[in-house]
C-alpha cells in the first residue's frame, strides 16, 4: 500500500505517522526529541529512527513522500543539515517549519490563519497566494497571550504590589507559595535564571485559581485572549482576508483553556462576524498528508 509520512519534530519527542493516499492513519511511532537546537546529532538520529520504524513495517518503496515539521528549522543551516542527513532515504523529502505543519494539519492546506499559543505564541496565515505572520519574536520581544506572557503578567502584579507596599492578593500569594519564593527578589532571580518553559509553567497557578472563580486570574486569562485576538486581527488585515476569515487555533493556552478561547473568539467575531473558527485536537503529523494532497491537487 502506498502511503505518506508526516513527522512532528518537537522539543520533547518526535512523532511520525503514516497515512494512506486516502488519508487513513496506518501507523504511528514516537522517538526522542527532534528539535535540532537541543542537540542536532541526537535530534537527527531520532528523526531518522522514526522513519525507519515506519519503513520497516510498511516498506520504504511504498512511501510517496516524507513531510517533516521541524521547530527552529529556519535558524542557521538546519534545513541543509537535515536534507544531507536524510539523503540515503528513497522518498521525496519536504521540510516545513513546525508552525506551517500545524497550519496544514488544521486547515488542510486551505487559506486561513493559525494562532499558536503554548509556551510562546505566533500567528501565521495565507490568503490567495500570500503568506505572512505576526508575532513569534520570543519571550523578550513578544509572545503575547502565551503561557509565558500570562505568567509574566502575574509576576509583574506581584512586583507592583511590593513596590506600592500593598498586601498581596490571594492569587499573588499562591504564586509565591507555589514557587517557594520567600521574597520577591527570589522570584525575580528565578525568572532571570530559568528557561522560558519553567517561567511559563507558573501560568498554571493562574489557570488553577481561575477554575476556582478567582477574578484576578480570570481577568489575566481574558487579557491573554484579547492579546491573541489583536494579533490575528493584524494578520487578517495584513493579508486582506477581512471579509470572511478562517481562523484555526492550537497550543495548550487556546485548546485547553475555555476562558482564553472564548474571549479570543468573541473579540475576533466582533470585528469579523463572518469568521469561521477551527478548534480541534489533531496531530501535527496530519499536516504531512494535507501537504501531499495539496501538491497532488495543484499538479
From TrEMBL:
PANTHER family linked: N-ACETYL-D-GLUCOSAMINE KINASE
Residue ranges of domain ATPase BadF/BadG/BcrA/BcrD type in the record: 5-276
Full protein name: BadF-type ATPase
Lineage: Bacteria, Bacillati, Bacillota, Bacilli, Lactobacillales
Gene3D superfamilies: 3.30.420.40
Coiled-coil regions, chain positions: none
Domain of life: Bacteria
One Pfam family, short name: BcrAD_BadFG
Amino acid at each position: 500500500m502506498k502511503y505518506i509520512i508526516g513527522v512532528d519534530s518537537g522539543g520533547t519527542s518526535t512523532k511520525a505517522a503514516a497515512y494512506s493516499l486516502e488519508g487513513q492513519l496506518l501507523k504511528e511511532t514516537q522517538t526522542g526529541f527532534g528539535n535540532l537546537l537541543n542537540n542536532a546529532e541526537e535530534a537527527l538520529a531520532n528523526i531518522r529512527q522514526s522513519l525507519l520504524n515506519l519503513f520497516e513495517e510498511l516498506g520504504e518503496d511504498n512511501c510517496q513522500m516524507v513531510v517533516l515539521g521541524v521547530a527552529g528549522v529556519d535558524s542557521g543551516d538546519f534545513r541543509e543539515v537535515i536534507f544531507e542527513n536524510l539523503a540515503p532515504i528513497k522518498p521525496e523529502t519536504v521540510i516545513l517549519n513546525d508552525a506551517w505543519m500545524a497550519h496544514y494539519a488544521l486547515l488542510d492546506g486551505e487559506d486561513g490563519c493559525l494562532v499558536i499559543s503554548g509556551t510562546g505564541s505566533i500567528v501565521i496565515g495565507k490568503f490567495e497566494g500570500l503568506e505572512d505572520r505576526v508575532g513569534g519574536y520570543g519571550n523578550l520581544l513578544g509572545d503575547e497571550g502565551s503561557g509565558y506572557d500570562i505568567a509574566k503578567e502575574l509576576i509583574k502584579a506581584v512586583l507592583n504590589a511590593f513596590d506600592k507596599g500593598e498586601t498581596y492578593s490571594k492569587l499573588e500569594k499562591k504564586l509565591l507559595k507555589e514557587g517557594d519564593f520567600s521574597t520577591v527578589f527570589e522570584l525575580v532571580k528565578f525568572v532571570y535564571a530559568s528557561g522560558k518553559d519553567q517561567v511559563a509553567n507558573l501560568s498554571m497557578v493562574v489557570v488553577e485559581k481561575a477554575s476556582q472563580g478567582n477574578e484576578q486570574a480570570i481577568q489575566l486569562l481574558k487579557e491573554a485572549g484579547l492579546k491573541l485576538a489583536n494579533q490575528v486581527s493584524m494578520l487578517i488585515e495584513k493579508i486582506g482576508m477581512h471579509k470572511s476569515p478562517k481562523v484555526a487555533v492550537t497550543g495548550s493556552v487556546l485548546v485547553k483553556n475555555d476562558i482564553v478561547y472564548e474571549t479570543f473568539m468573541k473579540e475576533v467575531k466582533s470585528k469579523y462576524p463572518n469568521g469561521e473558527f477551527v478548534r480541534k485536537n489533531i496531530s501535527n503529523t496530519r499536516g504531512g498528508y494535507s501537504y501531499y494532497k495539496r501538491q497532488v491537487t495543484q499538479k
